[in-house]
Design brief:
single chain, mainly beta, 6-stranded antiparallel beta sheet, 5-stranded mixed beta sheet, globular
Length: 415
Amino acid sequence: MMAGVEVEWRSDEVEHEHLHGRSGHAVVALGHDDRALVFGGAVRGLCAEDVLVVPPRGASWRVPADGAAPARRMAHTLCRLARSARAILFGGGDGKQLFADVWELALAPADFEPGGRARWAQIACRGEPPAARMGHAAAVLGEAERTLALFGGFVKEAGHAVYTAELLLLDTASWQWARVASVGAPVPGRLGSAGACCEGRAFFFGGSAAGHVFDDVHVLPVDDAPERALAAVRASGSPTARVHATCVVVAAAIVLIGGTTGGGEVADALDVLDTATLSWSQPALERAPQAWPLGVRPARSKHGVALLRLDSRLAITADDTSSAASAGVEVRALVVVLGGVSSEASKHLDGRGSPLLLFVRVRAACSSRAASSEALPEASGAASGAAGPAVGPAVGPVAGPVSYTHLRAHETDSY
């Protein structure tokens, strides 16, 4: 169980004109020098197809493609597989059409230096291809980082626009598509959920459909048991319902960042889900600037995040009331938050796209594994985390395995 979570916001005062006005893009960590990679998104009403490198300090730069590359798009997913130094792109849309294509991007460090070129390869997958979609969520499953889980999204069926709650699996070794069985009570279709894998399970939070915003949590076990299915769980202290939030995994915690509430307000809250107890809390804010550089504030939606750095250390805390001392593990993470919208009306952020850096510290009770002085494994993509032992029981009753339902989209609905 977590003993506490503390966060600190900082803002880079460098103006990044390539990020200004960008939303619906995807962000992953490059895995060296704390750099983040950005692909696509909507920039001042037009979809982009560029690859950007954003360093922790200094100006960002574009990296042109070496050969064929994905078409311009927004509301896609890009997942980093750290163990194989690649990122996988799926889906998205450009305002006129939806995509169901899969691309692999090599993450060789030299390719993303100034003057480098991005090497994309389109993948021909096996199995029944999924419907083209945008606004879906993704999580990288397990320590092997072999399988992607893709949940929900905005699709077209028989000429009609619908929200789906379909859960797809893509094996990135065999490039085989699969669908998780649908049984039990239906899960409403949705877009704009936040997804991550933590402690042996994939978690999906929130989203919206037809004007309704959700605050629910659905969980998928990482193991490949034939009977596994997406299950709704009841977590205590649920945060405000929201859509287009993002999340990162730090230790056994999922940190939920931003998003748009049911009232249309862009949230500046951070909420933390303890995956061992399935309880939500808001972390202690160690420091937040009173006057944000360049007008940038943490409130944002349709943004991107990447977990840049993750390490751990053994921490000993003395008890002031006795001679006893408790041991714990302190996990420290560096997260970059890029782009997005500051309000649904403005459609962009103020502050010339300046990145925000989020420092997260999670302290947990000591375990035999955690007491090791070794650093934690390198983190994979922004929507993934290292798998571990099965987590404890949920707080409150847990619904049985659930099936999916599509919700018809209103003609006026948009991403």
